[in-house]
Each structure stands twice: as structure tokens, then as C-alpha cells.
Amino acid sequence: MSGAALKVFLVATEDSGDNLGAALMRALAARSARPVAFSGVGGSAMAAEGLRPLFPAGELAIVGIDAVLRKLPLILRRIRDTAAAALAAKPDVMVIIDSPDFTHRVARRVRAADPRIPIVDYVSPTVWAWRPGRARAMRAYVDHVLAVLPFEPQAHRDLGGPPCTYVGHPLSERVGALRPNADEARRRAAEPPLLLVLPGSRGGEVTRLLAPFGAAVRLVVERYGPVEVVVPTVPHVAERVRAAVADWPVPARVALDPAEKDAAFRQARAALAASGTVTLELAVAGVPTVVSYKISPIEEIVGHLLVRIPSIVLANLVLGDNVMPEVLQRRATPENLAAALLPLLSDTPERARQVAAFGRIDAVMEIGGAAPSARAAEVVLATAAGAGVP
User: 37 and 21, same structural domain?
Assistant: First the structure.
């Protein structure tokens, strides 16, 4: 390496963005012809790669409208602080990572004050699902979008958004942790079947879904026979999940350790899951799944007015086919959930259809090629150099 350092300013405020940012930092350091100097906002993963965060990213890990309103003065101050730090750093490129409500406001301030700083957005906002006008608006302050879903570049082209490149989903780097070896495949086929129950990672999801999920599992056991139930969860809702599961009529093991959760994915025969990224994990793992979700009546009305997608299930959108059944809102009764789940425990057409669809996911997501972080780094370096990106 030779010459002045390549200055990269990064902004990530959530755990998922922190992990993406850390992987990108490693990839940039490995591929840049010059030393790389990092600055900006990130969490512990990015700090481990050499970032000295402007402030603790955990300050902005805020969930819920009430919490946002209470912290609004802090949020607005941190937007100003971050934009000012970026302008003072005069980076060769700025990379904003997910969290669009925060990072895009920073980007707009930086672009308005210094249009010479190239800006890359890592993880597209869901312009394909709602508020599609954001795509065209982004052209004013984003030079390139790094997409983690394969259909997003076409969505940006259709909506008049910035140039967009699919770099791959970070999940593709975890395939080995999610797919069974020979012994685990035998456990997947053995009795009693292992059933995953995934009620979500947010407090509201857990509150709304755990009771009907537990009642559905009881009906499944009554009609199928014994099953082994594993409930993967995350630390901030773990106690609530344990308390609810303790009242279930069917014994259930709560899995908090990441290695234990991955092992359950590799051995599970079927899953009952809240809608979210976990549906894509289940598809990669090859686990047939029933998906459910419940929101408030007001949120449902707003959703019907604003959301324009054929499915709320991420795995279905990626595969281009509604293979995972959706049992939503008032339809999400224990009876309906159990009826959709039962066929997935046996050798049925419903199970076979999902398994066949999952066989296409590697090609659709380009799993097995270059790591997403490596692809992302190439685009960031090209943008910093002012070069066009294919």
C-alpha cells in the first residue's frame, strides 16, 4: 500500500448495521490500494475493526413511537453532530448503513453542505413495499445503493432511484451454520419432529403472537402426536418469552444461545414464525414454515393503504412465489395456524412444494459467489474513485 489514506466515513446505528459495517471495513482494508482511515458512527463490531465512534450507537437503539418522541431532541442533535463530523472529516466516500430515518437525514445534510462527498447507501429502504417516492428522492443525495435483496436493483430502476447493485444478503455467509449435516438431516426426519416456534424479536410481536402460537402447538400435538418444541429468542424479550412458554400445555425449550439456535434450525422439520428476516433464514435452512403476524387495527388500515406488495413474507418476495402460507390478523387463530402447520410435518404436497422452492434460493440469492462484504467494498472503492459501477 502507498499514498495518502483513503478516508471512509461510516454511519451505522443498529446491531445489524454495525455487523454489516464491520465486515465492510475488513473488506475495504483488504482491497484498497491505499491504507484506509475510518471514522463515523458504529457499534462494538465496528469499534473492533478500528472505528472510534463519534458517540455510542446504542443511544439510538430506540423502538416504538413513544420512545422516539421522548428521545427526539437527542436524535435530532445526533443527526446534526454526525453530519458536522462528516463534513469536518472531508472523506473520500461516506457510507450510510440501513436505519434510513437517521442515516438519510445525515446524508441530506452532508450533500447540501458539500456535494463533492460521494455517498453510498448500504441496504436499500423498502421503497418496493411502501413510500415508493423515496427512491426518486434519493437520487439527490445518494450516489449508489448497495442492495441486499436480489429484486431491489430492478425496483430502483422502475421507480427512478439511484444506481443500485445487488451485493448479496449477509445471510449467505451463514449457510454452513443453517444447513444440516448427515446426522442432523436424519434428526430432521426422525420422530418426534422438532418444531421451531418464532414469535418475533420485538415486544409487541411477542405479546400478540405467543398466546395463539402456544394454543396452535397444543392443537398440533393433539392431532399429530408428540413434538419437540424449540423457541429461539433474543435477550431483550427472553424473560417475557420464558414466562409465557411456562404456561403452555406443551413443554418448550427456549433457545437464547446463537449456537443452540443454529442447531435447532439445522434439525427442525417445520416452523411457525412471525414475519421478518427469519423467514429468509428458514428458507435457506430448508425448513417449511407457516408465517403469521398481528398488528393493531389502525396499523392494518394504514398498511392496506400504503403497502403494495404481493406478500409480507420476505422469503416469498425473494423467491417470487408465495410458498410460505400467511395466516394474518384475525385469521391468525390457533385453529387456522394448526391447520396450516400440520401438513408440513409429514410427506405431503404442501411440504414438498416449499422444499422444492427452497432449492432455488442459492441461485436467486447468488449464494456461493463472492462474499457480500467483498462485493460491497468494490462498489464503495469505485465510488470513492469516481469510477462508474456496472
Answer: yes
State the distance between the two ends of the chain, measured CA to CA, in whole angstroms.
26
Burial of 321 (0-12, 13-18, 19+ CB in 10 A): middle
Rounded to an integer, what distance in angstroms lies between the CA atom of residue 87 and that of residue 308?
37
Backbone angles phi, psi at 195, to 5 degrees: -110, 125
> What are the backbone angles phi and psi of residue 253, rounded to the nearest 5°?
-100, 125
Give Cβ neighbours of residue 182 (< 8 Å, ≥ 6 apart): none
Number of domains in the chain: 2
What H or E segment, with its residue span, contains residue 6? strand 6-12
- Give the structural domain span for 125: 6-168+369-384
89 in Cβ contact with 98 (< 8 Å): no
- Computed on alpha carbons and rounded to an integer, the radius of gyration of the chain in Å comes to 22
Note whether residue 179 is domain-resident. Answer: yes
- Please return the burial class of 55, using the count of CB atoms within 10 Å of its CB with bins 0-12, 13-18 and 19+: middle
Cis status, amide bond into 192, omega within 30 of 0:
yes
The verdict on residue 18 lying in a domain is yes
pTM for the complete prediction? 0.87
pLDDT tens-digit profile of 280-327? 999 999 999 999 987 656 555 555 545 567 788 999 999 999 999 999
- 263-285 burial by CB neighbour count: b if 16+ within 10 A, else e? bbbbbbbbbbbbbbebbbbbbbb
- Res 207: pLDDT: 85
Q: How far apart are CA 371 and CA 169, in angstroms?
A: 9
The residues near 224 (Cβ < 8 Å, ≥ 6 apart) are: 193, 342, 345
Residue with cell 457499534: 43
pLDDT digit string (tens) for 301-310? 555 545 567 7
Helix (H) or strand (E) holding 209: helix 203-224
CATH label of the domain that carries residue 312: 3.40.50.2000
